Amino acid sequence: KQIGDRLGLSFSDGTHQSLVEQQAIDLNEALSKKQFLLLMDDVWTRLELWKIGIPALGGESNRKIAFTTRMLSVCHAMSADKNVEVDALDPDRSWELFGKVVGEEAPLQNPQIDKLARMVVGKCGGLPLAITTIGRAMRGRWHPAEWKGALKALDDSAEELGGDDELLPRLKVSYDFLENDAMRSALLFCAMYPEDCDISREELVEYWVGEGLLSCDGGRIDDARCKGHMLIGKLQDACMLQHGITDPLRKVRMHDAIRDMALWQTRHGKGDVGGFCRLDEEKLTYGDEIKGGERVRRIWMRHLQLKGAPRCIKACPNTWTLLLNRTSFGQSLLVDFFQFMKALRVLDLSVTTVEVLPVEIGSLEELQYLNLSFTRISRLPKEVGRLKRLKQLVLESTYYLNRVPRGAITGLESTLQVLNMWNSGYDWEGKMVEQVDVAGGGDEQLELTDLEGLVRLLDLRITIKTTRLLAVILGSDKLRTCTRHLGLHNHNQPPSEGLVYEEGEALPRRAFNRTTHHNASGDESPPIVETLRLRLNRLPSLERLLLSGFHSETTIVIVGSTDHPEWDDRSNNGDPSSEGFRELHVQRFDGLKDLKLVGTFPSLEQIKLFRCSRVETLELDDEQGGDSRFPLLKRVSLHVLQELESISRRALNHPELETISVSKCPQLRHLPLGPESVRKLTKIVGEQHWWDRLHWANVDVKPKYDGCFVDREGGLHH
Question: Would you tell me how many other CB atoms lie within 10 Å of the CB of residue 38?
Fold first, then answer.
């Protein structure tokens, strides 16, 4: 009707279907004879333009439409030719806008108030809506104490400042327009994190999966994870989340104003979409009860010193998620938590002081996610096997873990999908532990072959210490196909023991070959020479590989995707080469002389070599040229490689390479960089004296990369 009025069509008021359709026809006829620019503000859903009388665009018509929206998905749905993201205002423009809103008579000339006002503006994060709303609330404020109060209120919540009747409800419109309760609940989860904090996408998704927020047909955890990452993308499209600053790809953050809105919604919202309680030292000190505790689904108690169970915990019997990461507490406190929180689905005890997991853990019948990473637990109670809904068990870097009763894991055979024992101290070749005086003692210990009985296991992350265990993994279709992270450490074995098998035992042929050459001439014989050859198509789900601690002279050959007959073994029960293989770490290899990467590695993002004292070459490209064998390689780290001389015989061809980090590689005198070979390279980290001594095949190349160099000790090179 507004458009019709501008064209002099004098449409009558009314919403009857036939009337609206006729007005659309009349409007279309009038606009078809004109050139026009149509401006539409605050569009929330796709508009069928023809239904409201807007004729087709394009061609020679000189007709344009520009619209604003808070949802990137609306731009996609309406097939926008060009999307323009309106960034937050920079500090100067934010201050200029704030000054206009506060008014010319505001006492900003007072140095004390000026300083406080600038801090207030900084809290607005460049968001015009926040700046104008808070600016209006501060008009006529002449006393510095009022500005101090405003700053404190913004630290707590914009609601306390005043003006929330405009700012927060208007931001809440975006919240209300999210697709479903799952997205709204996920956003509120993010608000638990501290202000101005980068949040790991992977951590968020794992928590959401544990809560059951990302339910999928069939219940496969990989499908739920994909759904979680898509949900994050939708929240970003809706401008509810931003890319992280420290790592834009792997982290996200919330704008302060959006976080304030989420906190406001948590306090005043109705229904059950993820109410939470974030406890800090002040609340613990006063022992506040939580109002409406029956609605609380999540409790955040990270980075605290707990001397007893907070009284408020008893008021939250329906809690799904309890986050105690990096918190110090007495051992008896967990029993209190388990007593009052029978509905727990997610329990994160990582990086805490816990040394003994109480047997009462078995009473948490709803638990789906349990994280004990970086704790000092030495044994896992067999009662863990009673958690019949547990899907994810994370025991990463549990260095002191030495007893895992078989029943603690085999009891989860029908539910467990993720078992993370990366860098755990557990000895997979240990025998029965006879300690009847210890809770859980006297039980037969878990063996690697027991994991084959976990019918739903999809994600295994494991560190082993002998190649006999590697043979077990590669000889089991179940284990080799679900292994995501694999670490082979050989630190505590004498030279070569990890590659020599008893009674003629050998790894599956063509999977991981080893050759040994002995000279029987006594003590003067040369060292054993061995070849480790790993074909990634035998580990189709592998994402991360770490090899460490071999002492005898060794050559490592890792075979990616290739159709060369010498390396291709798909006819021998091999799977397509691992498309998910992202990280290769080789460290503390005293005898490593050559590292050969054969074929292409379509997903490899990071290569790291550390303390391999004899390695001389690393071939990051072949001599034939052509397409890169590492099309997604982003980071190369080379540290303490005294004999390394070359990383490629020709100019690197890595279109995604961003960072090269080098330290204590005195023989590496040449970086094979061409003028256009690594267009995304932004950082070369190393020692200044190493950079100054580098030889360049073309003198015109070095100036191009001077701006990328970062002195490891002194910061940016100028």
Answer: 14
* Highest mean pLDDT (candidates 93-102, 153-162, 350-359): 350-359
**What is the per-residue pLDDT for 494?**
41
Residue type, 603: S
| Top-confidence residue, 161 or 303 | 303
What sign does the dihedral 685-690-694-700 (CA atoms) show? positive
Altogether, the residues listed in the chain come to a count of 718
How many other CB atoms are there within 10 angstroms of residue 435's CB atom? 13
User: Strands 606-610, 635-639: parallel, antiparallel or unpaired by DSSP?
Assistant: parallel
Domain extents in the chain:
2-77, 91-165, 169-273
pLDDT of residue 496: 38
Distance of CA 204 to the CA centre of its chain: 8
> How would you class 372 by CB atoms within 10 Å of its CB: exposed for 0-12, middle for 13-18, buried for 19 or more?
buried
- The predicted-structure confidence for 375-408, as pLDDT tens digits, reads as follows 999 999 999 999 999 999 999 999 999 999 999 9
Q: Are 673 and 705 in contact (CB under 8 A)?
A: yes
What gap in Å lies between CA 463 and CA 196, rounded to an integer?
35
pLDDT surpasses 70 at 133? no
Distance CA 458, CA 366 (A): 21
Q: In terms of Cα–Cα distance, which of 660, 650, 536 is closest to 598?
A: 536
At 148, the pLDDT band (50, 70, 90 cuts) reads confident
Let me know: does 419 contact 457? Beta carbons within 8 Å. Answer: yes
Q: How far apart are alpha carbons 639 and 686 in whole angstroms?
A: 10
CATH code for residues 169-273: 1.10.10
- Alpha-carbon distance of 141 to 390, in angstroms, equals 56
Query: H-helix or E-strand containing 268?
Result: helix 256-268
Are the CB atoms for 638 and 668 separated by under 8 Å? yes
Chain center to CA of 403: 31
Cβ contact 125:257 at 8 Å:
yes
pTM, two decimal places: 0.77
Task: Give helix 181-190 / helix 201-211 axis angle, nearest 10°.
Answer: 130
- pLDDT mean over 220-224: 93
Residue 285 has pLDDT above 80, yes or no: no
